[in-house]
């Protein structure tokens, strides 16, 4: 009999995190080795516990799930990451793919679908929910989406800065961006300042024009 898959669950919402961990704990093929409430905690636990699979939320305080996935896989390339999120946005999906996630499911997925994703990813496979499968196929077929063009044009920016620039280009205020990304307004202001310095752009309006020209803000 094979050993159960060692799974780490990372989500900043305690009710969902503990409920999801309890659901997985009831499955013979899975052993929940730990839970994390942030991206940084996920990295710390992954270093210590070396799970087979990490189920990663996207929007978490401090270090978001996309950047946490990127860093985790740089340190532990053999670990599988399944992103489990509320977001159906193409930009988030593309970022998860680029970060190295091999699974992407919405939080409304059936338990059987989640377990199937975990076992598939642990075996080296790739799995995406039925709702997202068509978008993944389009992304892989095209090889160059709006997000890809933005990454090329704004290669001087970090992934988080491009995410903030995308929301700036969509017309959101710093307060709205902070709420959307679960960041403080001070952190958003710092990101915007860094973006204007790196582009360089004289003001927010110029940054918006250049971002929309590259396909952001849609």
From TrEMBL:
Transmembrane segments: none annotated. Coiled coil: none annotated. The keyword Phosphoprotein applies. InterPro entries: CheY-like_superfamily, NreC/VraR/RcsB-like_REC, Sig_transdc_resp-reg_C-effctor, Sig_transdc_resp-reg_receiver, Tscrpt_reg_LuxR_C, WalR-like. It comes from the Bacteria. GO terms for molecular function: DNA binding. One of its GO terms (biological process) is regulation of DNA-templated transcription. The modification 4-aspartylphosphate is found at residue 57. Residues 150-215 form the HTH luxR-type domain. Residues 6-122 form the Response regulatory domain. Pfam families: GerE (PF00196), Response_reg (PF00072). Keywords: DNA-binding, Phosphoprotein, Transcription, Transcription regulation. Signal peptide: none annotated. This is Response regulator transcription factor.
């Amino acid at each position: 009999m094979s050993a159960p898959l060692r799974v780490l669950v990372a989500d900043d919402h305690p009710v969902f995190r503990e409920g999801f961990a309890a659901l997985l704990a009831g499955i013979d093929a899975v052993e929940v080795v730990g839970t994390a409430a942030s991206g940084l905690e996920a990295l710390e636990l992954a270093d210590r516990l070396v799970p087979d699979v990490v189920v990663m939320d996207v929007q978490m305080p401090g270090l978001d799930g996309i950047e946490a996935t990127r860093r985790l896989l740089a340190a532990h390339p053999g670990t599988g990451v399944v992103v489990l999120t509320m977001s159906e946005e193409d930009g988030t999906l593309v970022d998860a793919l680029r970060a190295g996630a091999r699974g992407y499911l919405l939080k409304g997925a059936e338990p059987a679908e989640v377990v199937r994703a975990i076992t598939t990813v642990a075996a080296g496979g790739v799995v995406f929910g039925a709702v997202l499968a068509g978008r993944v196929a389009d992304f892989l077929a095209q090889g160059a989406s709006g997000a890809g063009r933005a990454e090329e044009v704004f290669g001087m920016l970090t992934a988080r800065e491009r995410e903030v620039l995308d929301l700036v280009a969509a017309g959101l205020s710093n307060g709205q961006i902070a709420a959307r990304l679960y960041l403080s307004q001070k952190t958003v202001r710092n990101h915007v300042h860094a973006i204007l310095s790196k582009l360089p752009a004289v003001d927010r309006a110029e940054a918006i024009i250049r971002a929309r020209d590259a396909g952001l803000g849609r």
